[in-house]
Amino acid sequence: MVGWDGGHSSLYFYLAQTGVGGSQLFDREFPGPLPERLRPRFRTTARLLWTIYVGLTVAQIALLYFLARVELFDSICISFSTIPTGGFTPTTGSIGAYANPLAEYIIMAFMFLAGMSFILHYQILRGNWKAIKGEEFRLYVIILGAAIFLLILSQGFSSYREGMFQAISIMSTTGFVTVDFASWHSGARILLLTLMFIGACGGSTGGAIKVVRVLALIKHTRVMMRKAISPKAVIPMKLNQKPISEGIIRDIISFLFLYILVAITASVVLCFLGLNLETAISAVAATLGNVGPGLGGVGPISNYAGLPSPAKFILIICMWLGRLELFTVLMIFSPRFWKG
User: Fold this and answer.
1) What integer pLDDT is reported at residue 158 of this predicted model?
2) H or E element in which residue 21 lies
3) CA-to-CA distance for 74 and 94, rounded, in angstroms?
4) Cα–Cα distance between 328 and 10 in angstroms, integer?
5) Residues 6+ apart with CB under 8 A from 161
6) How far is CA 166 from CA 8, 257, 262, 282, in A?
7) Which pLDDT does position 164 carry in this prediction?
């Protein structure tokens, strides 16, 4: 049941024990401005996070098995792939193969929870319900709400459940499917592609750019526009009433630049290997964001098996870079990092 941000926290533990850059990796992996530690000790923090993680997994298994009447083995497999946003099922038709609306609603709820920051889960468990007013969570809900509305609008109200499910599945980067969304309206497809790039909240098990980075860039752009009008004005940037340093903004801009650069480069290479534009871009977005299904030749009813071997190699690198948040990989390969 390894799934907390790809299960590579063991690397942090090893580096922390050996004194080699453990805190730097933790800060890079937690993409939010001003990374929070739930408790001062790393072991205590890990224990709290695993408690929340296991609790959510057990709750989903129970609801799927006792309430939705899904077989126990399937309930366990689905739950083990929901909270870690893995997206694998025992069936070739993903969640759609069960034709169980109640199970879909339960899975939607837990995909949504998996896309939230685990720090927010912790705050709520402590009774701090004001935490849900945080700016990142609000933007997460707004983006999801707008995406669901547009998908229902484009596909018709009769497809409301499919629209809800796919919006939550893609944005949380879980990758479960209930319908062949690759055959949807072009507007709906480009919307899902956008969600593949945005991803879930910082501190969640999801992948992609993360909502907190998008939020910080929106705030930074707003400040730059205000400064263009009033050059002498001193306008501090804040997130949840806390100041954001210029260093953090530079890190976020650098990350976004690297993310887009990798996405463009990989897409161009895939096109030269014979993939059409829609398949190439969506395959890169889906693997770099660790979503799973893409569009075109790698859509929900297709898979990556038919791609040429060089294309698979490129996408493997994308999955690796995306799961380790780019900077972590670059830091590991930097001689200066290992010198302390």
Assistant:
1) 84
2) none
3) 11
4) 14
5) 101, 104, 105, 178
6) 27, 27, 25, 15
7) 97
pLDDT in tens, 273-314: 999 999 999 999 999 999 999 999 999 988 899 999 999 999
Query: What is the C-alpha to C-alpha distance for residues 62 and 33, in angstroms, rounded to an integer?
Result: 36
CA count, 13 A, side-chain hemisphere, 284: 21
Question: Are residues 114 and 171 in contact, defined by beta-carbon separation less than 8 angstroms?
Answer: no
What's the first-to-final CA gap in the chain, in angstroms? Answer: 33
Show the low-confidence residues of the chain (pLDDT under 70): 1-42, 340
The Cα-based distances of 43 to 38, 39, 48, 202, 209 in angstroms read 11, 9, 9, 20, 27
Instruction: Please state the pTM of the whole predicted model.
Output: 0.87
Dihedral of CA atoms 137, 143, 149, 150 in degrees, nearest 10, equals: -170
Q: Is the dihedral of CA 193, 99, 76, 44 positive or negative?
A: positive
